[in-house]
Design brief:
Layout lengths: L12 E6 L3 E6 L13 E7 L2 E19 L10 E22 L2 E6 L11 E4 L2 H17 L5 E6 L6 E4 L1 H6 L2 E4 L6 H13 L6 E5 L11 E5 L12 E2 L8 H8 L7 H23 L18 H13 L1 E7 L9 E5 L7 H12 L4 H4 L10 H10 L12 E5 L8 H18 L12 E5 L15 H16 L5 E7 L7 H5 L3 E4 L5 H9 L19 E6 L6 E5 L13 H6 L7 H10 L4
Parallel strand pairs: 10-18, 10-19, 11-16, 11-17, 12-13, 12-16, 17-18
Antiparallel strand pairs: 1-2, 1-7, 2-5, 3-4, 3-7, 4-5, 5-6, 8-9, 8-21, 14-15, 19-20, 20-21
């Protein structure tokens, strides 16, 4: 049975002008204008059982003054008779067909044809709206074996809103919203449903420890000071030898110094020397065929420092001897090319090595300095669920909260780069589908993915390079991105432009709103006008993963993140618990939460 069965009395107006995707409608009856509300869906019959679906983006009523002569013509005085011009503007968002081949109730985002002038326009409401939203839910649900239910449609709270999980992650997604708009529990809701898939593979970059309450996931953290003496089972060390040459330069070399080029060359020579020696000691000479300075080979940091010390103190024999004086007969020497030029560089390097805040880089346990340690780290990062345990080991939440802020970007970039490189070098198999896909959830992305590389520091630039490569090429190798940020204007435009799906919660800042508008097709920009007025947990969802670009009320997860806004006034009125200030001070001194 057809879901759209309108009679002429149901029409709110007629098509007056047609552009590529925008329709102007003339409303002759002022009372019918009340049915035209911004954000409401309308239907325009194109031909037969094909209907164009649109969203009302603007409604207006203009007074019009029309001069008119009196009927008897006895006076030249024109009487001004006021009247009104009513109209609405519609953006087309798709096509509904009662039958499409053998399929019934078919909806697509494509617009196959445009309406004729004077075609009646009908509001989709009540039973028609309920039926249409039910079709959207059913279509999304059947398009995937395990559909992703993000909530309910604002237009019809009885209709569940599903999105295509494949398209959401294949083509990357951006989850944007101001503080307190519901970003964290939207992430938590997506993680919960991902955990229901037996072989899920998700890595969450948790910068503030917000997702520690997700009991269905595996939890790790970048090692802190407390892990130096007794490493925790869940602590992850990222030994310095994992760094690429560019990353080493960003961490160790002061670009503003006059000796920066000498320091960079000395560092490269010593790293190559250490890695070649380690390869020979391990008996892995076959690696030398494809060896570069970036080849991840474990070596000892103290050996690297000793090599740089030797370059800094190097003297060369001139071939001459002293002819007289107390040194008569002794060989003459001169300073080596780097003699004394690495002193400040070595001081900075040794200072960082002795700083316990960087223990995860310079004080990794001996088990991380074996040839197999990289295999173990890669398995930990890329393990997927096995479909047998209650906890899904494929959902991995990595806590970066103890990483010093000055080095945070490059540390997050190292993890992302390792994941991408392992996926890149995996055997794709005969059909190209042997890689197991993984999604990186980049929480607080504006912290380490700045909008302009030219103004970013060397550490941020290294992280940007890694993530921009994933954004551009990750889809081919099974690496997807979910970029989460409260300040989209501070996030790399290159990365955001690669996100084909936008989930935007409330955004009050005009600059941030402007960035989101630029990410959308021109025909959908009007949807973004509602961003400042969205309720908490309500989002505008646009992109390849959703059949209909519309407002959705996001479902709350069962496991709420720890980022819930603290009710100041309520707590001040009725304090729930006493804070152990002494314990907090001791934790601060020990640099651990116990």
């Amino acid at each position: 049975m057809a879901i759209f069965m309108f009679n002429d009395n149901c029409s709110i107006g007629e098509v007056r002008s047609v552009e590529t995707s925008r329709i102007t409608v003339r409303v002759t009856d002022g009372h019918k204008l009340q049915k035209a509300r911004v954000g409401r869906l309308v239907a325009i019959q194109s031909m037969g059982d094909e209907w164009l679906i649109g969203i009302i983006e603007r409604v207006w009523r203009h007074p019009v003054e029309i001069p008119k002569l009196e009927d008897d013509g006895s006076s030249d005085t024109a009487l001004v008779i006021p009247t009104e011009e009513n109209g609405i503007c519609i953006t087309l968002v798709g096509t509904y067909r009662e039958r499409h081949g053998s399929q019934k109730d078919f909806f697509t985002r494509a617009v196959f044809s445009l309406p004729e002038i004077n075609r009646p326009v009908f509001p989709i409401e009540e039973k028609s709206l309920e039926d249409f939203m039910g079709i959207l839910s059913a279509s999304s649900r059947t398009s995937s074996a395990a559909p992703l239910n993000v909530g309910t449609y604002t237009l019809d709270s009885k209709a569940a809103a599903y999105i295509d999980g494949d398209k959401l992650f294949q083509r990357h997604a951006a989850l944007l919203g101001s503080t307190g708009s519901g970003k964290s529990y939207t992430v938590a809701s997506i993680l919960e449903q991902s955990a229901a898939l037996p072989h899920a593979n998700v890595i969450v970059f948790d910068l503030h420890g917000e997702y520690g309450s997700m009991s269905f996931a595996s939890h790790y953290r970048i090692a802190g000071i407390s892990d130096v003496a007794v490493p925790s089972e869940r602590a992850i060390f990222l030994p310095f030898w994992l760094l690429t040459y560019d990353e080493m330069q960003s961490v160790f070399v002061d670009r503003s110094g006059d000796n920066a080029p000498n320091q960079a060359l000395a560092l490269m020579d010593s790293v190559i020397e250490m890695k070649r020696a380690a390869i020979a000691q391990m008996g892995k000479e076959d690696l030398l065929e494809g060896f570069t300075v970036d080849t991840p080979i474990p070596y000892n940091m103290t050996d690297l420092v000793a090599s740089l010390d030797a370059k800094n103190d190097e003297t060369l024999d001139t071939g001459d001897t002293y002819a007289s004086g107390p040194r008569k007969g002794l060989a003459k020497t001169e300073k080596g090319p780097l003699n004394g030029k690495l002193s400040r560089f070595l001081i900075r390097l040794k200072t960082k090595m002795n700083d316990r805040r960087y223990a995860f880089l310079y004080s990794a346990p001996s088990s991380y300095n074996t040839y197999e340690s990289l295999h173990d780290l890669a398995r930990k990062l890329l393990q997927s669920g096995n479909g047998t345990s209650e906890r899904n080991d494929g959902i991995k939440i990595i806590d970066f909260s103890e990483v010093p802020s000055d080095i945070l970007p490059v540390v997050v970039g190292i993890v992302a780069r390792l994941v991408y490189q392992v996926q890149f070098w995996s055997d794709p198999g005969p059909g190209g589908d042997s890689r197991h896909p993984v999604v990186l959830v980049c929480d607080e992305a504006h912290v380490y993915l700045p909008s302009h590389a030219s103004t970013a520091g060397p550490l941020e630039r290294r992280a940007l390079e890694n993530f921009e490569r994933i954004a551009k090429e990750g889809r081919k190798y099974g690496v997807g991105l979910l970029v989460v940020s409260q300040r989209p204007s501070d996030v790399s435009t290159t990365i955001l432009s690669q996100c084909s799906n936008i989930i935007s919660l409330r955004l009050s800042n005009k600059t941030d709103q402007g960035v989101v508008r630029q990410l959308l097709p021109e025909s959908l920009e009007s949807l973004m006008e509602v961003l400042p007025t969205l309720d908490i947990g309500e989002a505008v969802v646009v992109g390849d993963a959703t059949l209909l670009p519309t407002r959705i009320k996001i479902s709350k997860p069962k496991h709420l993140p720890r980022s819930a806004t603290i009710p100041f006034w309520l707590r001040w009125a009725k304090p729930k618990s006493q804070v152990d200030i002494a314990a907090a001070v001791e934790n601060m001194r020990k640099q651990t939460r116990g």
